[in-house]
């Protein structure tokens, strides 16, 4: 018997919580507020996941100082209005409760600033399920981590005293799979998030799931968990 915990590492937006347009709408609002062109809906959706400043550098032709102002405007609007529009995906709270009952350690690894991740999880009553929450620096005007999600996933492993072979990442984008793979962790893709068509086909995923029940079975398969006991 090992003392190493079985660890499920969850992405946040697009995996646990449906932003319900609050992220893409907020980005569009912030760009318009500063007189910048708003990209297409597909491009906006692709900005969900990576740090916002990183996406703006890649997609928007504007001076550095103006991009910092866009981030500030977006964040203010998101905190005051957008966050309340989001909802946990169907079955997620119940899934997290069952996984805790089965003895798993649960953690969040998101590129959202950590303080906002905590606020969002707390708003929806999900914070209580997690042993730890890991995110990007709270100051988004700082340069994003050069290794993207790699260091955030590593931090989750170290904090929870987990090894890669006893862990699984659950996410909706290539950034999640890349962060997991760099740490030797297998990754499950959720089909309800923001991955554009065809993205999962290029990734080495342990499974792709379509609902919370499928996700629970996939986590059990990857971590070789004992089957959940049936009710008598």
Summarize the structure.
This protein is of the alpha/beta class. 41% of the residues lie in helices and 15% in strands. The protein has helices spanning 22-33, 41-46, 52-59, 64-82, 92-101, 114-123, 150-159, 174-182, 212-222; strands at 7-10, 17-18, 87-88, 105-113, 132-136, 167-171, 186-190, 207-209.
Poorly predicted sequence stretches spanning 5 or more consecutive residues: none
By secondary-structure content and strand pairing, the structural class works out as alpha/beta
Relevant CATH superfamily of the largest domain: HAD superfamily/HAD-like
Q: In angstroms, what is the radius of gyration?
A: 18 Å
Helicity range: 40-55%
CATH fold node name of the largest domain: Rossmann fold
Which architecture of the largest domain per CATH? Answer: 3-Layer(aba) Sandwich
Provide an overview of this structure.
It is a single chain. The protein is of the alpha/beta class. The chain folds into 2 domains: 7-18 and 88-222, Rossmann fold, CATH 3.40.50.1000; 22-85, Putative phosphatase, domain 2 (DNA polymerase, domain 1, Orthogonal Bundle). It has 9 helices and 8 strands. The chain has helices spanning 22-33, 41-46, 52-59, 64-82, 92-101, 114-123, 150-159, 174-182, 212-222; strands spanning 7-10, 17-18, 87-88, 105-113, 132-136, 167-171, 186-190, 207-209. The strands form 2 sheets. A 6-stranded parallel beta sheet has the order 5-4-1-6-7-8, with helices on both faces. A two-stranded antiparallel sheet has the order 2-3. Strand 6 (167-171), helix 8 and strand 7 (186-190) form a beta-alpha-beta unit. Helix 1 (22-33) crosses helix 4 (64-82), helix 3 (52-59) packs across helix 4 (64-82) and helix 7 (150-159) packs across helix 8 (174-182). The longest helix is centred in the N-terminal third of the chain and has 19 residues, at 64-82. It is globular and about 55 Å long. It holds the Pfam family HAD_2. It comes from Sinomonas puerhi. InterPro entries: HAD-like_hydrolase_sf (IPR050155), HAD-like_sf (IPR036412), HAD_2 (IPR041492), HAD_sf (IPR023214), PGP-like_dom2 (IPR023198). This is HAD hydrolase-like protein. One of its GO terms (molecular function) is protein tyrosine kinase activity.
């Amino acid at each position: 018997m090992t003392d190493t915990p079985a660890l499920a590492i969850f992405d946040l937006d697009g995996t646990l919580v449906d932003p319900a347009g609050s992220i893409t709408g907020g980005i569009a609002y912030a760009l318009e507020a500063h007189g910048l062109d708003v990209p297409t809906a597909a491009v906006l959706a692709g900005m969900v996941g990576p740090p916002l400043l990183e996406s703006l550098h890649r997609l928007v032709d504007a001076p550095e100082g103006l991009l910092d102002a866009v981030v500030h405007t977006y964040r203010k609007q998101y905190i005051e209005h957008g966050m309340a529009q989001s909802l946990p995906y169907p079955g997620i709270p119940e899934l997290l409760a069952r996984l805790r009952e089965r003895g798993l350690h649960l953690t969040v690894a998101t590129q959202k600033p950590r303080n906002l991740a905590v606020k969002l999880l707390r708003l929806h009553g999900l914070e209580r399920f997690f042993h730890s929450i890991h995110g990007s620096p709270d100051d988004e005007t700082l340069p994003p981590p050069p290794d993207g999600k790699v260091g955030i996933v590593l931090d989750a492993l170290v904090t929870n005293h987990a090894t890669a072979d006893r862990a699984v990442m659950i996410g909706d984008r290539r950034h999640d799979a890349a962060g997991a793979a760099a740490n030797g962790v297998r990754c499950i893709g959720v089909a309800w998030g923001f991955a554009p068509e065809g993205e999962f086909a290029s990734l080495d995923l342990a499974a792709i799931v379509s609902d919370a029940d499928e996700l629970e079975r996939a986590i059990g398969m990857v971590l070789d968990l004992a089957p959940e006991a049936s009710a008598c």
